[in-house]
Each structure stands twice: as structure tokens, then as C-alpha cells.
Protein 1
Amino acid sequence: MFDLDGVLVDSERVWDEVRRAFAAAHGGAWRPESTRAMQGMSTPEWAAYLVDEVGVRLTPDEVAGGVVEEMARRYEAGPPVLPAAVEVVRAVAARWPVAIASSSPPVLIRSFLDSTGLAEVVPVALSSEEAGAGKPAPDVYLLAARRLGVDAAGCAAVEDSTNGLRSALAAGMAVYAVPNPHFPPDPEVLGRTTVLDRLADLPQALARSSG
């Protein structure tokens, strides 16, 4: 189970930049905790947060539409795929079924799959919008496991942020952390995971754990 933002795509800073600019343009006042609070939220959740907590003077639907439209525009030339991301997904998919369990909206997940050619090896790619609740709730991981037809307890998840790690842990999965250098996860949460220095180390780590 791969997270997308921060694991396969270097997009956490892009999301932050776009949301901050959108909030400032529409009467919002950014809070010190806002960036981390929204990491892992589904689109309806962070749109409501920007209205209720940041003070954006639009409806949540208008906020979601505006922010996602700008993110899609940023992705027009292709998403900022992280080093080794495509190779790692293909290497893992050669041995185990894989899925993407992300808080990105479906349009951005599809952009990633189309631009990398990974749709052929990723049979399940879910947005938390489709699961009912965003991270740190486990919903998107549990739904991805059901769609793959496997037990969540037999899955491994790869995450980079505090809320993402909490989500995968709550789903009962073995969790591999590739900490986001720009938004480091909570050390207490990291301590409950297997920490990797880089995503490229994942296939070997999985092979060791599976014997």
C-alpha cells in the first residue's frame, strides 16, 4: 500500500503553497498548525478546515474546486515524481499486489498513474474521498485492502507524514516510514514503524520481512 503525496510524488510543499495562497486570496489567516493538521485529510475535510479554521470566505465546495483546479494546473506538465518511485512500485508489484491509498483527489492520482505508466501494475488506486474519512482514520487503507481482496493485517504500508503513519497503523498494517524532510513526522509515531532512509530501500526491506 503506497501513499502518494510525499512518498511517490514530491507534492506536500506544492499542496501547502497552493492552499496558503488560496487562503490568503480569500480572506483566510493561516495558523501555525494548519499545514500539519491538513496532511492526510480528504478533500472535503481540508476544504471545510480552510473555511472553519482558517477563515476562507467561500463555501467548502468552492474551496475544494479552486485548490484542486490549481493543483491540476501544476500537474499539467506531469507530477513531480520522486526519485526511484516508479522503479520501486514496479519492483514491489512484481512480487506482491500493490495499491495506492492517498488523500489526493482522484484526478491527481490518475495524473500520476497516466504519466508514469503505472496503471498497468497498480490495480487499486483510491482517494480517501472514496473511503469516507481521511487520514489519520484507517478507512482508505482498509478499503484498499478489501478492493485487493486481502487481509489488512497481512499488508505493508509506506508513508511519510504523521497522519499517514497513524492511518496505516490504525489499519493494523506493517508500516514503513520514509520521513518527509520538509514536514518531519512525530518521533513517537515513527517509533512504531520501520524507518527507511529512502524509498529505494523498500523492496529489500519487504523481502527481508517476508523471509
Note: The mean pLDDT is 95.
Protein 2
Amino acid sequence: MGLGRLDLVGKLYQPAVWPKVATAARGATPDAPVVVDLDPTTFCDLACPECISGKLLNQGRLTPARLAELADEIVAMGVDAVILIGGGEPLAHRGTRRALATLGAGGVAIGVVTNGTLIGQNLDELSRYAYYVRVSVDAASTDTYGRFRPDRQGRSVFDRVIGNMRAFAARKKGALGYSFLVMTREDGTSNHHEVLAAAELAKDIGCDYFEVKAMFDDEHHIVGVADAILESVESQLAMARKLEGDDFSIIDSSTLAALRAGAGRDQPKDYATCKVANLRTLITPSGVYICPYHRGNPKARLGDAVTDSLPVIWRDADRAVIDPRTDCTFHCARHDSNLELDRIEAGKGRELLAADDDLFL
């Protein structure tokens, strides 16, 4: 079928999710989301200066018992996919291994976004159950990694992360991704010069894809870069694409595409409700939120997964608390999906795909 990993519009037309998509297109809420983003913990073993969740870190976690219950609730509800992610490091929670096993055995597709330091302790479950594991590396050398992704003692753990990725690559059933966030500081310090070297390392490790992203500010607006830096990144990516083959691809994120197109800081929206919010949600220790862009935003909090069951929160949530016209002026990766849901409602959608490929809408 050939759906791209970031073809979020095309993914709407997969047979397994179509009944929920059709319900969301009408502005209604299906019995369960297609995708749940799940933050088991806010704790992290790294201290990245540019972390977009920095203000939310180290403020609590779900108890192992509650995380296990949530995994059971997600399976029972009929959620299609879960992304273990976080303000914190999801693999740092001692209950994550059990959650991975419960979700995987329950037929839920699992994605994991991690800093890679703790892959080794979770290798059995990740190798067996993960549809994909994406590691945020943002460097190709020990020194650059230490400047942008130091641990809490200020050290570089680059070699450990790369070693963990190699171990996973040797055993994985799903995909392994190498994520590179282009960062530039006011003093001129940057990691952009290592894009090509990182892509080469990703292929050597055995990664399935290499993804380059642009940086966000604290409110999720894309941070612009100097023309010379963008030109350097583009030149390196052109060379990196020569590495592509059946088992390795280079992926441009929507944020990088926006930079390339000269898009401004804002992304105007003319719809008052987010229909994608009927297909996805975010669970964190501090609450259930309408989406990851609004992690920690009290206005976007839909409930408390510590005290209430997920089915009740999902059923009773008021998703109209967020108005994309005023609350989502940043570049949203699912803006085009919202526009497509409107087209589906108007009877102008596409034909369904023949089979399912990637349920991570």
C-alpha cells in the first residue's frame, strides 16, 4: 500500500479505523480513540536545555498499578494504537515493561518515542511488541550530543544510546527511527552540521528511517533559522538521500517542510473545533489532555486518569474547550487531517484503502 510514515491524511482511509474516522468526520465521538499518547512519567534521566517539556519535567508519574490498569482499559476499549512518549522518558517507568506486554498481547499497535538510554532494560518487550521505536538523538558525535542532550550530571551518554540502538536493531520486529532536531542557540552553537553524519550513522546502526525536524518554541511555534543553516541542512539531506533504499528512508517532518516553504510563525485555522480530537488523546500523570500540543495546559485538560477510568473520561470529555482558531495558531501536524475530515463530511473523501498499514494517525 505504501503509506508514508507521515502521510497522516492517507492513514484516515484504512479499513480498521474508518468507522471511527467516519464518526469523527460527523463531529461525533467514537467509543474509543484510534490513538492514545501515553506519558507514564514526567521524570527524565537527561537534562536537555532545549527540551520543550522542560517546565513539566520531574513532577510525578503514574503508579505502576494505575499504569497497568490503564493498559487494560486501553485494550478493553478497543484503542487501535498507543504511543509511549512523554514530557519525561517513558522507559524510565518501572511499570512500562508490563504495559508494553499488556498492550502488545492485546493487539494494540505500539509506538515508542525515547531518548534511548534505557532501551536495554526494555529490550525484550520492545523487540517483541513495538511497531516502531523512534530515538531522539539530535547528534552524530559524543561532543555534540553532550552539548545538546547532557545527562543530569552534564555528561554525554551518546555511546550508550547508539549501543542500545544497535542492540534493538539486531532483534527488532518493528521499525527503528533516528530523530534529529535541528537546534541553534543565540550564541551560534548548533548541531546542524551533523545531519549527514547522523544519517550515515543511522543507516549503519540498522535504522529503518532518519527524520529531521525543526525546532519549536515553548508555545509550539516553529523557530526560524538563518538561510545559511537551512541551506546547509538541505545540502546534507540531498546527499543523505543517496543512502536510501528498500530498507532505509529519509523523512522530512512537517516542521522542516514549513521552514522550507517559508511559512510564517503562525498557521491560521478557520474551524472552531478539532475533529482529530475525536480520534486521539493524551494521558499524563497530571491529567488527560486534548492533544500533545496542549500537554500541561489547564484549559485543554479533559480529566484525571489517576482518579477516573479512561472510558468515562473519553465519553464525558468536552473537546470544545479548545478553539483551533485561537488556541492552535502554531503549525499543527494534523491540520491537514482536520481539513480532510471536513471533506469526508461533505462527501468529498477518497476511496478506502485495500488494507491497513500504519494506524498511527
Note: The first strand starts at residue 35 and ends at 38.
Protein 3
Amino acid sequence: MAFGSIAEQGRGYAVRTAGTAAEASADTGKGQARGLTVLLTTAMAFSMMQLFLLGALGPRLVDRLGVSETVLGLTTTVGFGTAAVLSPVGGRIVDRIGPRRALVTLLALSAVALGLIGAAPGSGLLLVAVALGGLPQALANPATNKAILASVPASRRGTVTGTKQSGVQLGAFVAGLPLAVAASAIGWRGAVWVAAGAALLAALWAWRALPADASPPPKGAVSGPTSSSPGGPVAWLAAFSLFLGAGIASVNTYLALFGSRHLGMGPTVAGALVAVLGVAGIAGRVGWSRAATPGRAPWLPGLLAGGAVGAAVLLAAAVRVDPLVWVAAVAVGVFAVSGNAVSMVLVMQRSAPGRAGQDSALVAAGFFAGFAVGPPLFGLLAERGRYGEGWVLVAGEFAVAGVVALAWAVRDRRTRADGPR
């Protein structure tokens, strides 16, 4: 009896120990997943930080650096034009070198670009710095998507993707509120240099936190069938992203200037408009990405583009009814900004094995091309004070994005219905 009792106690101890070990392992796994999500979110924030800083600090740049409204739009064109051209190459590079090296490079280049923006004496060096900032943008989506596919279970990829895509809007919030406030205390150059130092620290964090990359595949190795053919989802998503990006970039670049010049806001309050857009974008990207299940996801880009049209109409109405600008900023974040996150979820759902980096880069190239084209067109109207017409132009760009998205969703449903049974 005593021996049996001891044996039962031993078995109970073993079960409890095993359970404790399993729980500890699960907690460790969850902790690692959270750490990865935070790191990827940070990388996305820094990849486009320059855009939001130029937008939030636009009134100061125009007044103190002598940058015109048209040149302010041109900075966006140079940066995102570079990103659009380099994105297809960047996707192939990420597929070869792996996410760790790509993320470290992304963050280091972001630090250098921000540092140069802070040191720019005029438009010339500012444009050079912005062009350099196009490189991390080209790497951002391929690198972060590859990291998710390598480390995150399929059931959680939508949530993690939405969270890391919200990092872009986190960057908008940081640029529009903390850094805009810091600019009042330490000057706009000091605020940009603070951002540059933070990006460098993030690069060191990525190097220490991420596992070593696997050896690259043999050169010329076949990576599987492509999903970027003219009839495939990637080509349609790239076209959708082109028009979506044109509208979003115009809002990002000129929203604070609109508040300052047309609505009579102070620079800090006008910068807060960008922060509000950023917070709404974070919530929208996380929420809509969670909703992007394989059956529902194809229809979401068209729905979000429709909401974005309404947001642009509100901006046009704010020309006469000032308070509407705050509602419009929230709506742009919830609808327009969220469209890019959903498109990235669709890329990961539909990409062939080994092509996630390249397909992500092709869709991102369309998005960046839109960012390059939109602001200069808007800037021509902004210089003449015709903001109402500019916001109507943005509404038109969002409307075209919606038509493209819905056309692909209908085509996709028919293709799947006619497929093998």
C-alpha cells in the first residue's frame, strides 16, 4: 500500500511536471510570437517614417526651409518612385538573403535617410535623402511577409499581418504627435534626428532578436508557379494599389498643410490630424485583416475603397465645414489605409511557395507608384489654394481603385466556380 501510494504520487508529480513544462513552452512560444509581431510592426513604422514626417512637418519645411508646396509633393514622388522601381528587385533579394538580413538593412537605411533629412540645408539634399528612403520601403513588405510565413501558423497570419501593417500608421501617429510636439521644443531637425537614432537602435534589436537566415537557394532555382500573371490576383492587386496609393499619399502629404493654410490651425494641431489618421489606420488595419478570411477577403478591397471615397468627399466638404476634417481623417484611416493591409493578406493567401517576397514586392510596387504620382498632381492644385478640387481628385482615385478591386473579385469568383469540382 505504501509502495502503491508512493508510485501514484510519483505519477501525479510527473503529470504535473509535464503539464507545467508544456505550459511554460506555450508561454515561451506566445512570447516569441509577440516579440516578432512588435519587431515587424516597428520595421514597418520606420520604413515609411520619412513620408509622415514630411507631411506632419510640412508647414515648418515650407516656412523655414523654403520648400514650396510643389517641391513638398515632389519629395514624395522621388521617394516612392525609387521604391516602386526597386520593389521587384527587392522582393527577389529578400527571397534569396532571408528576412533577418533584409530587416536589419531596412532599419539601418531608414536611420541614414532620416539623418540626412535632418541635415538637409535645402531641397537638393532633401530629395537625395528621400530617394535613399525608398530602399527600405522596397524591402519592407517582402521582408516582413517572409518572416510571417516562416514563423507564424496559418491561422494567425491574418492577425499578425494586420498588426504589422498597422506599423505604418503607428509611424504616422508618432510623426504627427510626439515628433511634431518635439519639433516645437527642439526644432524640426532635432525631431528628425531623434527618429533616426531610434531606427538605428531598432536595427540592432533585429540583428539580435531574429534567428539566422537559411542558406540562399541555388541561383536560378525554380521557385514554383507564379501568381503574378496578367490574370492572377497579384496583377489586379497591384493595379488596385496604384490608385489607392495615389489617394492616400495625397492625404498624407497635404492633410497637415491643408489644416494649417486653409483651416487656420497651428502647426502642432495640424500635425495632430496626421496622428488621428494614424490611430484610425492602426485600428482599421488590424480589424479588417482579421476579417479577411479566404472566402471574404477578395471582396474587402472594393468595400474599403468605397469607404475611402466617402472619406475624400468629407475632406472636400471640410473646405466649408471645418470640423469635418477630423471625421475625414478617421475615415481615411479606417477605410483607405486599411486596403493595403488586406491586399497583403490576399498575397499571402494566394502566393505560390517560394514567391511570397516577389509577389509582395509587385503589389507594393503598384502602391509606391501611386504614392509617386498622387502628391505632385495634388500639389499643383494646393499651390493655387484649390484644396476642394484636390480632394475631389482623391475621391476619383479611390473610386477607380474600387472598380478594379470589384472587377477582380467578380472574376475570381467565376474562376473558382468554373474550376475543378
Note: Residues 58 and 257 are 6 Å apart (CA to CA).
Protein 4
Amino acid sequence: MSYPHGQVSALVALIVSSSKTIEAHYAKSSKPYVPSLDDLAPHPLDSELSPSEVREAVQILEGACAQLCATVARPNHTVLNKLMQIYEPGCLQVAITFKIPDILLETPQGMHISEIASKHLFREVRTDVFANNRLSLELLSTAPLNGLAFHFTDENNKAVTRLPDVLADSQWGHSQSAVNTAWNKSTGFPGSLFEWFEGATPEGAKQGARFGLGMIGWGNAIEAGGVVTAFPWRDLPPGSTVCDVGGGIGNITMQLAKMYPHLKLKLQDTPDRITQAATNVWPAECPLAIVEDRIEFKAMDFFVESPIKGCDIYYLKNIIHDWPARECIKILSGVRNAMKSTSRVLIHEHVLQHADRVAEIKSAFAQAPEPLLPNYGVGRIRQYSIDLDMMVMLNSKERTLEEFTKLGGEAGLKFVKLWDVGELGVVEFCLAA
């Protein structure tokens, strides 16, 4: 459908409708209102998974607001604003490096700009006096998102400036090697990002540890925990084994342990992450699973060995997107070699959507209502931002359902089903006949 003269009104109508859906959701909570940014008290809905209709309403609202602004503003106005967004990561890095949210937490009345050295992301309570708001509290040094903020504003932000150099390089520009990346250009390190994170240098080890914690913040922000209720774990027989392959410190596995005590869980990753999980994170966050012997920690290198054999479910969250196709096939082939006839593989990642509108029967996901872009535009922008992140840091990518199916087939796996669990998808495979 074309909206040559009414697109603005149509987008406004989507904004109004989505806002009403969100307000109605808040109205049913114990605090029946949408909090303002200045409200520092946590809202009960902050820690709850959003219902699908609310999650979609937020995505429509984000996409429609951005598309509306881009539609009504002059093109040069919009492009200039996008160019100047380059400064935002630097300002965020200043805030978290100097722990400004932590400092302001001790001074709720606010501090003068000359004392805190930054004036971004906070609220101005008086002229040049700033205090925290709901957003800056997410950057406290104790908040999980803090580690990811450092990753994006530090190593990632430095690396992306070298992307043109890599693409112009006669050898690196066509390479799919994980050691020919913009991140390699920016650091001069000859190995992969994960070798760096595993302690190639003290700085690398520090960044790896904070990245591991940051992935908890990432999972919370994108509501990756939706897989805990959207997939039928409850229907698995008692004693069913779930192996979290490359699961870091085990954020999703901890959620499974707390909700489904009938499962036997296995967490596998590199030695540093397994040590961090077994000695620090799980004893503090999920000790009962350790006491009841429902969790096994085992270090592995999935390029050298297969995961623990004979598990019912092999779960890989944000693993395949870290690697080019050749390495992905090697990882999945290792999993295939560990599987029994009834095993299933679950790949939990962004499943890229195209921006062109197609017949619903051909679309893996529901498409946004017109005149919004069918992939929700800015409402689902993270899948494309992470796609760029993978290219810059690892020479990898996010993938479409067709690309996942192709990778699985080349590793001896057969596609079973796509589970829509919110922002991410879960691609289920079984053994190929």
C-alpha cells in the first residue's frame, strides 16, 4: 500500500496506538503509571519480561518515531545528526571510566559540572548541576550493562574507525579470517579477539572478564531470558541434559536452573570463563544448583573437541554469529558428533530480517504494519548494529534463517523449527537422516 500524502498521519497513528498499548500494560501493575526518566526508584516492570504485544508496541514506537522524524526533516538535517552520533560513545566512555553514576548516587541533590567532568545522560537539576536519571543508573559500576558499555565504547569504538582501512586493503578486504579485522588493525594484535580475551595480555584478560559480565547486561537488555519460557523446557523428562556450549559464565543456564530443577545442566566454555563461573558467579548467584549437583562445569575448545556427549539439548547462544562460515561448520560438526539420535540443537541469536516487504507466507517473522518498514526499522536496529559489530571485531555476521539452515545442512543437521522468542530467534536442528 502506498501513502504518498498520508504517511505522516499513518506513522502518528501507529505511535498513538503503540503508546496506548504500553500505558495499558503499566496500568495493570502495582505502580500503574509509566515512570518518568527522573524517577530513580525501580519500577516493578523493569525486571519482568515484556509480553509479546508490549515488546512489539515498543518496537513499533521506536521505528515509527525515527521514521517520522526522518520523513519530515530535511535530508541534510537527518544525515548531519547521524554523523554527529560518533561523539556519543566517547561521552559514554567518559561517564563510565570516571564512575560518574556512582559518584552521583552518593550525591542525589546533584553536583556541579566542574566536579563531575561530564554532562551527558544525566538530568540537569539546576544550571550546570547534574544528577542521575533512570538511564544513568544502568551505567553504575555494579550494573551488568557497565561491562558491555566499556566493550562498545572502548575496544569496539576504536576498531570501527579502522573499518575503511580494512575494506580498502587488497588482502584483508576480501579475507574472512578472524585475525584480519578492523579490531586487529586498531590493536596490532595478531590473534583473534577471543585469544585476547583469554589473557594474551593483562589488558586483554581484564577486557575479557568485564565482557563476560557485560553479556549478562546484554541478555537482560534484549530480554534473551524469553527463551526460558518460550521454549518447552518444562516438557522435557526429568533428568534431561542441557549443554550450554560456549555459554560464558552461564547467564541463561542459571535462569534454567532456577526455573526447571528437573534439568541436568552442563556449562562449557574456555578455561577462564569456566573458572569465573564456577568460583565466582554461580556460588553467589545460583548456589543451590551446585549443592544439588544439577550443574557441571567443563572447559572446552569447540574447535578442537566436541561438547559433552549424549545430551538431550545443545544450546548455543550468540556463538555462531562470532565466526565466519568455515568455523561455524566446524563448531556445529563437533556438536553433531556429540549428539544422540534424539538430541536437538538450539541456536539462539538474531535472525536477520530483510527491509523489503514480501508475502507473509514467505516471511520468517511477522512484518511491521504499514507504512512502517517491514523489519520495524529503528525498532529492531540492534540486529543490524550487531551485524556490523561482528564484522568489525571478528569478520563474522548475523544471519538470515536461510543462512542458518545452510550452515546446519553443511554440518549434518536438519532444520526443524524457528522459535520466535522476542528480539532473538531460536533455530532448532536435529540430526540429518
Note: The CA atoms of residues 41 and 272 lie 36 Å apart.
